[in-house]
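The record is kept unedited without comment:

——
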Amino acid sequence: MRAYRPVAQRGATLIEVLIAIIVLAIGLLGLALLQITSVQSNHSAYYRSQVTILAGDLADRMRANRTAALGSAYEFDFPTSSSSNSVSGTQAQKDKAEWLNALALTLPEGTGKVEKTGALVTISVRWNDNRGRIKTVDSSDSGIETFVYRTEI
């Protein structure tokens, strides 16, 4: 009688292939979620850099028109976001209108506020950063961000 020797296994079984596909799919899903978080963070960082530039722009305009800035010509509270502010009147009124128009065009629901105490100026910029949010803190979180820039003119 002949003795049969067991044949060495060749290739992979179907179950091994399925497990490898599942492990690979989980890894790819993790990378996709990481990419989404990265895009949201970059979007929010872009808005913040634009706000910094725009706040510095208004501070420079105020320094160029220092006499009016030391008065109350540049002070105002958060108006409704609009890119159709009339650019006319005194230089301070033109500067405010151009700045508010730039905020509305650059940021979603972008608006600003200027307060002055002596020569110290506080420029606040507010915008809707829902698109850049990674996760909300609670259900009442509206996504409104406020950036505060303080300088002396």
About this structure: The chain has one domain: 14-152.
